[in-house]
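Minutes, structural biology subgroup

Action item carried over from last meeting: produce the structure token record for Beta-ketoacyl synthase N-terminal-like domain-containing protein (Spongisporangium articulatum). EB confirmed the sequence was re-checked against the source entry. Recorded below for completeness.
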Amino acid sequence: MKKVPVVITGIGVINALGRNKDEYWQNLVDGKSGVRLATDHEFVGMEGVYLGEVEDEWVAEGLPEGADTGGVRMNALALVAAKQALEDSGLDLSTIADKEFGMVVGQCQATAGPTVGTYLPFHEATDKVANHFGLTGPRVLISTACAAGGNAVGTGRDMLWDGTADIVLAGGVDDLQKGSHLGFELLGAISDEPTAPYSRSDGLSLGEGAAFLVLETKASAEARGAKILAEVAGYGLSADAYHATAPDPTGKGPLRAVRRALVEADLTPEDVSYVNGHGTGTPTNDRMERKAMRSFFGERVREVPMSATKAALGHSLGASGAIEAVTCVMAIQNGVVPPTVNFHGEAPEDYDFIPHKGRAADVQITLSNNYAFGGNNCSLVLAKPGRLNRAEETTTDRKILVTGLGVVSGFGLGVDAWREGVAKGESAIGKITSFDAAKYGTEFGVEPFPLGAKPLAAASLWRHLAGYGRQALAATTFAFQDAGLKTNGPGRENVGLIFATGYGPIETAVELMIGMQSPEGASALSFANATVNAAAGAVCQALTLRGPTTTIASGGASALIALDSALQLLKTGHADRLVLLAIDDFCEAVMMERSKHDQLSAEGVVRPYDQDRSGTVLGSAAVAILLEAEEIVEARGGKAYAQVGGVAHGGVSHQQDAATAERVLKNLLSRSGTDAAEIGLVAGSGTGADRDDAELAGLSSVFGPELNLTAPKSLTGECEAASGGINMLTAILAVAEGVVPATANLTNPSSQYPFAHVTEPKTGADVNKAIATATTPSAAFGAALFTSV
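Output recorded by EB:
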């Protein structure tokens, strides 16, 4: 990994105060507020609702020509802000086709589908933007709730450091949704007036919007003569490990995040010129943030300007961190610190909250803080161009090992149950009993494996977890036990969690949506459990994991993308030990939606890579992979299954699935210094549907017919993000133990793309290097390399 200066060369924003950066900035520093009584048709009739709404005409006039929004506001907001950022950067997209142009988006909410109880793919807005502008590099959708936007900017920086991308469009988007508003009402978190952070602090107002920033290395920006707006100096992540919705009142979680960010930037609290606070306006958040900032700055806290942008815009959830990053760039560029509007009462003498209107200041270093449900914390440090004098480049080469495996699958609980199931070569697919599946064209699937009666966490926490969260916690607990580590205890400030999911807790989310149709049909607990990162927060709380944590929700490829994020955090020293947890649920809502788009097997037999394939079967699983730096493993006398050789992923533009698979696989081999002939096995993402041909074409181009290929989905069904985890589990056990599952039901392999298919389960196979793949159809493809130790 190369630590090089990363700069911001373009910004774009749309929110309740403006249709672009200049309009937004002027209204903000003038002390205007975009939080007003609701006019959105969804909210009309609800008494006294204040929102930060974006004018419809701003969206319509700001869309790029020919943009396909699909009639979805979330997509439209993202396209508007992305267009502005790319134009502001001065990049000529037609001249950089050979570049890996990546995209990282923070987003909290999914968009409801056309009928109650359905959702559009979570990553749809990301795909709409990437496809419109032809960005075929890596695509990452981060859903760490209200910390997602800042998290996305930091992740984009890491992608440039590790060579995953050459340029990154990073930002966030969320629109106003009645369901979210009702959920916050259930928590008692909505103010009856326009929100007033740091003063009245009686609740939040929701808003909407989008913001994007173009990130590139300083060398790249200077070479093309770009105007550098700011430098991404550092960022930090942490987990509270405290509560599903309430912040740790001590402020220790946010303190860990901000200290990591400043240490990485090689700066001190004395260097900070301005703080853009989280400032939601709720009493618990505002009180905690005051305490955290006082602990961080000491007596200097009264001298550091600090304001809450959400006072003027409302809380736009996943977009907030990105909007606030743009705000910090504008403060640096204009030499003005923006205000906390709607400030009530006298400004306190012990904090400088910049009430009412902005003021001139020498803004050199900005700090932006974001906190979220699930205990996610993110701090982002931006610097004025030329302010930092860091070395052009340093390198790190930290070896990352796999030391523990945990799995909940159709074969049972734990890695031993997986080994036994693989050895038998029998499919875990069976008849669905929890709902009437026949109306969706098949009666078969792999339902969540039942957990025992004994809780795997404190009874109070376990009782409040839905089945999805319990499966996640079980898999992670098994991974720690497999590695010979305690499942909880002190000293876990550098132990974190990277969570990968395609659907999130979809059953809980659907129950919440349906329940909200009646006045007494939903609860605050169901709202808390419905956020995409809720299970990750619960696992951190149960196992006292307080290190970096993030959630990737990029569909079926999420686990491979999450591995990339884990490697970035481990190699930069942000963490010494991380759990990669991949899970997706299976319930009627999933089958209802997938049956509209997927080819499902009526007979319940999955035939990946077979010419007579008849469709896939849907399933459920949870996989946890414990990753540790080599020196940490040696210091504790631990053992390793395998070494992570590398990971690569890319976006699919305009149905170019085969070309993307080939490009990603070649990138993986090139970056890891591996020859194609060295690969002893590929655990492929073949699912028994027609789209298998795209992966086969990519594999054929890179490896040829001698490749040993297996498809675990023939045994487990399509488990979305968890399937990527299962494929990694397969590759790891292949190099560690020679355990290789067969591709079941393969009798008539594709003649166009011949391979050495594994048709009988193997034990003791000689595999030194193995690759796992994962796919989000027409969106992303990922591949990871594991080697023997």
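Discussion: The CA atoms of residues 11 and 326 lie 7 Å apart.
Next step: EB to file the record with the rest of the batch.
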